[in-house]
């Protein structure tokens, strides 16, 4: 498999796995878990899973001081992005917050243009427009909700931190396996979550029921371990901008789960939104070739 194909597949898998968040998070909220506790178990157990994975692969855990500094920065950005997003849910509907969060591909593209002078192609611009339009259609609100300024600022902060993470992860030349690098990113992210809980006075809640442990394992495994692992592979293979646009599949997965698992209605508007997002993804993957063929046929 060539590098680009691996990057596209990894980006799609990262988005799909991340979109499984509602399967684990919503039941835990219903059982009285705070957002801090959900993140504490999600990052903590994912760290353990990565450690076991490394032991199976017989990889060494040691890293240089330079790697430790860079991984700690990446972990902090990733964890703080999660914290701000979960904090925004206190001020606004989670659906609205998730919609605003998808401004991160635009921020990623702008950061790459401003700081690294990356050339943004017509295909990329069209794909961004299709993805953002599709995300807007996936929101299930009734259009009458008043947006909280605090909530919007928290989500935009989360989006910006995630965009910085994606950009920085690409510029950081990692000479080790994605398993080892992602382990350290998650580990440092978990340290930030622990610090956040200590600062806010959020005490650790112990899971008491099998369903609670099941949801915690799901959160640690799918939207954390697998999603971040494949995201890092995708960023290194196809770059920050394209990887972020493929993230449009995250809310598509969430909508499918909401419809088939939680019984929420599937409307024509949702169908159109999904079609727009899938079009954006297909355009990103085969856009340049499609454009060349179109221009050749017209000539």
Helix content: over 70%
* Global mean pLDDT: 85
Report the biggest beta sheet as strand number plus sense, adding barrel if it closes.
none
Shape: globular
Using only C-alpha atoms, the radius of gyration works out to 19 Å
Number of helices: 13
Q: How many DSSP-defined strands?
A: 0
Low-confidence stretches: none
Structure write-up:
The protein is mainly α. Helices cover 79% and strands 0% of the residues. The chain contains 13 helices and no strands. The protein has helices spanning 3-18, 21-30, 35-57, 65-88, 94-101, 104-116, 122-138, 149-171, 178-200, 210-238, 240-246, 249-260, 268-298. Helix 3 runs antiparallel to helix 9 (178-200). The longest helix is centred in the last third of the chain and has 31 residues, at 268-298. The protein is globular. The relative contact order is 0.22.
Which terms would index this structure?
299 residues, 13 helices, globular, 79% helix, single chain, 0% strand, mainly alpha
Fold topology:
Elements: H1 3-18, H2 21-30, H3 35-57, H4 65-88, H5 94-101, H6 104-116, H7 122-138, H8 149-171, H9 178-200, H10 210-238, H11 240-246, H12 249-260, H13 268-298
Short description:
The chain is an all-alpha fold.
């Amino acid at each position: 498999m060539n590098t680009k194909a691996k990057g596209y597949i990894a980006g799609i898998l990262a988005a799909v796995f991340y979109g499984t968040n509602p399967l684990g998070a919503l039941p835990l909220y219903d059982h009285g878990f705070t957002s801090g506790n959900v993140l504490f178990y999600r990052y903590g157990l994912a760290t353990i899973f990565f450690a076991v994975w490394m032991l199976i692969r017989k990889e060494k855990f040691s890293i240089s001081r330079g790697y430790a500094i860079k991984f700690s920065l990446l972990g902090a950005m990733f964890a703080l992005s999660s914290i701000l997003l979960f904090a925004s849910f206190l001020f606004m509907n989670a659906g609205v917050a998730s919609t605003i969060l998808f401004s991160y591909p635009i921020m990623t593209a702008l950061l790459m243009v401003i700081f690294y002078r990356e050339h943004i192609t017509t295909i990329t611009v069209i794909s961004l427009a299709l993805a953002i339009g599709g995300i807007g259609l996936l929101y299930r609100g009734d259009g009458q909700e008043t947006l909280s300024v605090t909530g919007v600022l928290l989500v935009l902060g989360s989006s910006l931190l995630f965009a910085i993470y994606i950009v920085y992860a690409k510029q950081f030349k990692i000479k080790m396996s994605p398993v080892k690098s992602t382990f350290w990113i998650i580990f440092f992210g978990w340290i930030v979550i622990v610090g956040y809980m200590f600062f806010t006075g959020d005490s650790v809640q112990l899971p008491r029921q099998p369903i609670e442990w099941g949801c915690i394992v799901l959160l640690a495994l799918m939207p954390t371990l697998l999603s971040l692992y494949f995201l890092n592979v995708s960023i290194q293979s196809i770059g920050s901008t394209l990887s972020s646009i493929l993230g449009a599949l995250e809310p598509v997965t969430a909508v499918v789960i909401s419809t088939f698992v939680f019984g929420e209605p599937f409307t024509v508007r949702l169908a159109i939104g999904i079609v727009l997002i899938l079009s954006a993804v297909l355009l990103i993957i085969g856009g340049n070739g499609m454009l060349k063929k179109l221009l050749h046929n017209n000539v």
